[in-house]
Design brief:
With about 240 residues, the chain is an alpha/beta fold. The chain has helices at about 15-25, 55-65, 70-80, 100-105, 110-115, 130, 135-150, 165-175, 190-205, 220-230; strands at about 1-5, 30-35, 50, 90-95, 120-125, 155-160. The protein has one domain (about 1-170, about 210-230): P-loop containing nucleotide triphosphate hydrolases (Rossmann fold).
Length: about 240
């Protein structure tokens, strides 16, 4: 299974790549690691394929006379044309994606890469510490990625280790019943808008359970692995 790990900058993609890979290996699986971020300075795992051996954002800036944003866009165009190695006898290939999510999914790179990968699933990481006040917005962002790339996607909430017990219980309640977000008295105009958006989303997208995960402590990895198998199985139930 090829697992494309997506998420906004700082959400924990590289750490999840490393530690979820170690978890899979501890369960007896054979794992390979791909780094597709040409702008990262250091990665916490040993990559079996590293795009930085072909080009980096820094080298593109120097050779093309571009600023950081222009070099990132150029790198994404180059990334779309890269051929990736195929590994025999591998259970999981974890693919760490660029830190800047928008150029990856809104240009050709993400779509073309998905088209090259057999048996592909995406993990979309939401940073719990950044999204507590905007869960609806982050959820919509994950749906945009799923729609744009046209691939099965498992959404996870990362950094649960940074929340206290009360915060965790509150998040679990909201995940079980999202309408709790909008039941407080004195709702603002933004709350009303979120309520309407949430209702629309529920009509067009199936309900899916969202595991609470810590890329640091490995919490929730067992459920994540189960969901990865279920998303590929017609008999699976992600609710």
């Amino acid at each position: 299974m090829n697992i494309l790990i997506l998420g906004p900058a700082g959400s924990g993609k590289s750490l999840l790549t490393k530690n979820f890979g170690l978890y899979l290996e501890s369960e007896g699986y054979i794992v390979k690691y791909l780094n597709l971020d040409p702008g990262v300075l250091k990665i916490p795992y040993k990559a079996d394929f590293d795009i930085r051996e072909k080009f980096t954002v820094e080298k593109i800036m120097r050779s093309e006379g571009l600023g950081p944003n222009g070099a990132i866009l150029k790198a994404m165009d180059m990334l779309a044309d890269v051929s990736f190695p195929s590994f025999n006898g591998v259970d999981f290939t974890l693919i760490d994606t660029p830190g800047q999510l928008e150029p990856f999914i809104f240009r050709d790179a993400g779509r073309k890469i998905v088209e090259k990968l057999d048996d592909c699933v995406c993990i979309f990481i939401v940073d719990l510490t950044a999204s507590k006040q905007n869960l609806v917005g982050f959820y919509l962002y994950s749906l945009v990625a799923k729609y744009t790339l046209n691939v099965e996607t498992v959404i996870i909430l990362n950094k649960v280790d940074l929340l206290n017990r009360n915060e965790i219980e509150k998040v679990k309640m909201i995940l079980e019943n999202p309408l709790l977000l909008f039941e407080a008295e004195g709702r603002s105009l933004r709350d009303e808008l979120d309520f309407e958006v949430a209702n629309i989303v529920r009509k067009f997208f199936p309900v899916q359970r969202i595991p609470l995960v810590s890329a640091k402590t490995w919490e929730g990895f067992n459920e994540l692995l189960t969901m990865l198998y279920e998303v590929k199985c017609v008999c699976g139930d992600l609710t």
